[in-house]
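Suppose a colleague, Dr. K., hands you the sequence of a protein chain of 425 amino acids and asks what its three-dimensional shape might be. Before reaching for any lab equipment, you can write down a predicted structure in token form. Begin with the sequence itself:
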Amino acid sequence: MFGYMPESIDHKTVFSLLEVSRSIQKTISDRYQSLYWVKAEMNKLNHYAHSGHCFPELVEKKDGKVVAETRSILWKADYTRINQQFIELLQEPLRDGITILFQAGISYDPLYGLSLRIVDIDPAFVLGELEKEKKESLRRLQAEGVFQLNKQLRLARLPKRLAIISVETSKGLSDFNKIITQNPWGYRLEMTLFPALLQGDRSIPSIIGQLANIAERADAYDAVAIIRGGGGEVGLSSYNNYQLAKAICIFPLPVLTGIGHSTNETVSELVSYKNAITPSELADFLLQRFHDFAIPLDRLLERMIDSGQRRFDHEKQALKQISQALSWQSQQRLQKHLLLLQDVTQRLDRSSRQAIRVQHTALQHLSQLIQLSDPKHLLRRGFSITRINGKAIQSTEALHVGDVIQTEVLDGHFTSTIKEIKHGK
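The predicted structure, expressed as tokens, is then:
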């Protein structure tokens, strides 16, 4: 059967494993003598740097399940040539997780089993597959009505608190930080880095995971920035992934992208709030927001200072005029009051002198009257004063016969006894 002489054991024809394997090897070799173009997903490249050979794992999926799987071989010389073609056309090396169209021969080895020896991979097909994935992601997001959700969010007038998803060693992040931190206007932004893979299939769960971490502290940030240094179409394929793009669509904060490339926009960029071609352009966009806010304020401040200065000068001039007017009026009023004071002083002096003279004359008259009323003056004129018990007698009504009375004259007095009283004039 296999061209070998089998053994006979207990009346049974028995072939060795090697005989069977060699028979299979010969059959396959005879049947599959040409090279074939095959489409499959390269699940893992399995490149061994020390030998330069690759042993890609090839799978085909249906409804998310693996329905076919085989090993393959990509020898060092073929890998080097194909990888260079990818770099020239896609600006990215051959990598895991892409659907490829490859040319291979089918072989079987008794020791290693069935495998495909890849001799060529069409890089243009990879581009087409990526474009198909991109269109499908766009169709699904638009059909679900979430495509514009992130664009409809409100970005803070001054987005000062940034959550940044990037790689710490990324040149794009370095350029972004340099522009932000060294801006000549002194604008200050608080930036928190959430490290993530930014290339390859593993970048999808890595970025989504960091978005979830940021969403838990959404109040602490104004926006999220996804920053990645340049790269080619293959390197950007993860940004066309439906799951990643949808996570950006429904994210509660505005998502800003500075992914860095010069070709078509990815789905993640199309659905983000703001898409800058490079991290540097994204930094300029943020600084421009501060500039747009600061310039009108500066101009307003200049107008306020100018207006205040002009008002101050005007009031100063007005105050000077008032001061001059007050000074002249005060001098005039002072002069007027001095004249009035002099007039009052003179009139007071005259009236005082007059009053003094009147009072002096009155005093003289009063003195004369006092002198005239002195009893001695009356006694000198021949009058006398009669007293009873020390009191002057002014009426006969207080007298009685027999009373002793004293009579004073100019040069002495004498005592008398009343013998008779006659009343009436």
